[in-house]
Specification:
InterPro entries: DMSP_lyase (IPR031723), RmlC-like_jellyroll (IPR014710). Helices cover 23% and strands 22% of the residues. By secondary structure, it is an alpha+beta fold. The mean pLDDT is 97. The structure holds fe (ii) ion.
């Protein structure tokens, strides 16, 4: 029978704190409450995506700016680093308006969700990692989503202007809303969670 590793439970606990930050929109906090409630139940089908992609090399640089100290952001950054060998990496290759090399310049790390360290289909908890000067493609999906930023970065929803939620801040994506993010001159790291 599957038993969640302590390192993963520690990560889930600290991620829960990040997603309850008052800097997030209320809708993002409400969504993440539902996600973390489901995560109280362990579930795993054993599938693992262990392929490594070029942008995985940005992990250390992206986390370096927040890893020091005892803040929840720092604890989460160190916890991700501990889980690195078990992360299910994947890339998006569809969508419009991505920068020229965005496929090579980004990677998504699934921690809980299909192919992740705890592979399941009712929730997703993971992160996006991007190279400097990269724009992710416009994309949309049915599940609602909440983000928390560990680094600076800009987001866009539908035809709105780009905005920076701030480090430790985040945003909420309702079902099927078109959204994208872009980086500046440093690597980018943001957690997301989705309720499936
Ligand atoms: Fe998304």
């Amino acid at each position: 029978m599957y038993a969640r590793q302590k390192t993963l439970q520690n990560f889930i606990n600290v991620a829960h704190v990040l997603f309850q930050n008052q800097a997030l929109p209320q809708a993002a906090r409400e969504l993440s409450c539902k996600v973390f409630r489901r995560l109280a139940t362990e579930s795993d089908d054993g599938k693992r995506n262990l392929t490594i992609y070029p942008a995985c090399t940005y992990l250390d640089r992206a986390l370096a700016s927040v890893s020091a100290g005892d803040t929840p952001l720092a604890c989460a950054a160190r916890s991700v680093k501990e889980l690195e060998p078990f992360i299910g990496w994947q890339r998006r290759t569809t969508g419009l308006n991505g920068s020229e090399n965005y496929v090579e310049d980004h990677v998504n790390g699934m921690i809980v969700g299909p192919g992740g360290m705890e592979s399941r289909y009712d929730v997703q908890l993971g992160f996006s990692l991007m190279a400097p000067n990269t724009r992710y493609s416009d994309h949309q999906h049915v599940p609602e989503e909440a983000y928390v930023l560990l680094t600076a970065g800009d987001f866009k929803q539908e035809n709105g202007d780009w905005f920076d939620p701030g480090i430790g801040g985040g945003l909420y994506n309702r079902s099927n809303i078109s959204h994208a993010m872009r980086t500046r001159d440093l690597p980018f790291f943001a957690f997301w969670c989705l309720l499936i």
